[in-house]
Amino acid sequence: MNLRPQEKTYFCANIAHCDDARKHKLITKSGSAHCSLCGEALQFARWKTHWHKIGMYVGTLTLAAVASFPIAFPTIHHHVQFKSAKTEVYEEDAIVEIIVQRTQFFEQTQSIQFNTRAGTAIAGQDYTVLSKSVFFQKGQREQIIRVSITPDSDVYERNETFYVSLENVAAQPEHLVVIKEAGVNKDLLEKGHLLVSSLSSLAADLANDLKQLELLSEYLSGQNEPNPVLVNKFNDTSDNIQRAREKYLFLFKDAEELDPNVIENALNSQLEILKKGEFKTQYAATRVMKTQLLEYLSSRITNTPQWLDALRQVTDEDQGSTIPTNAI
Description:
328 residues; Immunoglobulin-like; Methane Monooxygenase Hydroxylase, Chain G, domain 1; 3 domains; 3-stranded antiparallel sheet; 8 helices; disordered C terminus; signal; transmembrane; membrane; CalX-like_sf
């Protein structure tokens, strides 16, 4: 169907042999450039205007403009607001309910559009992304917006936030939603504390053995006929360090399976316990181990010689020292 408002018209110039030409009949081309009666080539006459088609265009555009007016120029509502500025919700609550209220115009019906917007929470992962409307019936003063929260209790996270905003309300008010951390899975906490406790003891043992090996080495190297008991002690200490070194790396690998925040909390708890008990060497060794473990979890790069050297220096640094009250 041809909807163009104007078309070219043609005529046949073969007046001697063609009735259409003698009648000056105007022809609209339909795929052929020749007269259908005599076969003579057609000549351009003029443009033909279809006013009814122009009327259809104008009518269609008018209807489209009317239909799109609410979208292009939405109604802005006044005296609509959130009942409170902030809502706190725990992950396991699954849904947060936010109250929207009207303060005037109760006799009207109103459709209020709202959207969610990410803060520190991840849209679509920590909460459901929404772009919808709530509808106030005549006489209705309050409506409720409900947003689903996605629980993730196996991972330790800080409190997270997102926002709900009223789009077609004056000043576009926003409501803050705080997703409070529900806590960590108890099994993960226990695993983290057991692993850190083992590493703490192992770090202290390594610090003592490395220092002892250094002293034995210095002593034995200056003896022409070293004491066999001390030689055996040197060999036993070397074997102990090798076994402890392998276990140290093994526990670092185990830590990869746990959330780094769980590990860091367990490390801080262990340091608090050691500080209160005045276990100076183990406290110092655990502080060194904490730095090494967190760096390893971040980079996955092992540097055993440097780690052992740092632990060897622990006993030098804590001779006659006290645990600082503000150090963890």
